[in-house]
């Protein structure tokens, strides 16, 4: 049996949110906020089921060796990247339009 390599499907590639943001000219924090504001990610950065079902996003769980904790890592497929690029262009969203609130730590002296 002969195989034609050009007809075999390529495995789906996934990229981190930071890599995708950078490839689209965004910073990671503003990109995360834009995804939350457009109801692609929930407040805890977990993707809505709709985007998982469409294979735009995938969730990877990464254990931390030094703690009893598992981090949730959101990965974006090439199809998802194309969708997000079109969404940004359609809605004319620019990174300068997204404002990140800086959390300030206040210390109170207790006497």
Defining traits:
single chain; 111 residues; alpha+beta; Arc Repressor Mutant, subunit A; three-stranded antiparallel β-sheet; 4 helices; 16% strand
Description of the molecule:
- The protein is of the alpha+beta class.
- It has one domain: Arc Repressor Mutant, subunit A (Orthogonal Bundle), CATH 1.10.10.
- The protein has four helices and three strands, in the order E-H-H-H-E-E-H.
- A three-stranded antiparallel beta sheet has the order 1-3-2.
- Strand 2 and strand 3 form a beta hairpin.
- Helix 1 crosses helix 2.
- The radius of gyration is 18 Å and the shape is globular.
Strand order, largest beta sheet: 1-3-2
Tally of domains? 1
Helix content: 25-40%
Helix/strand-derived category reads alpha+beta
Order of helices and strands: EHHHEEH
The CATH class turns out to be Mainly Alpha
Largest sheet properties: 3 strands, antiparallel
Beta strand count: 3
Radius of gyration: 18 Å
Mean pLDDT: 85
List the helices and strands and how they pair.
Blueprint: E1 14-16, H1 17-23, H2 28-37, H3 49-53, E2 57-63, E3 70-77, H4 78-91
Antiparallel strand pairs: 1-3, 2-3
Short synopsis of the structure:
A hairpin with a 6-residue loop joins strand 2 (57-63) and strand 3 (70-77). The chain has 4 helices and 3 strands; from the N terminus they run E-H-H-H-E-E-H.
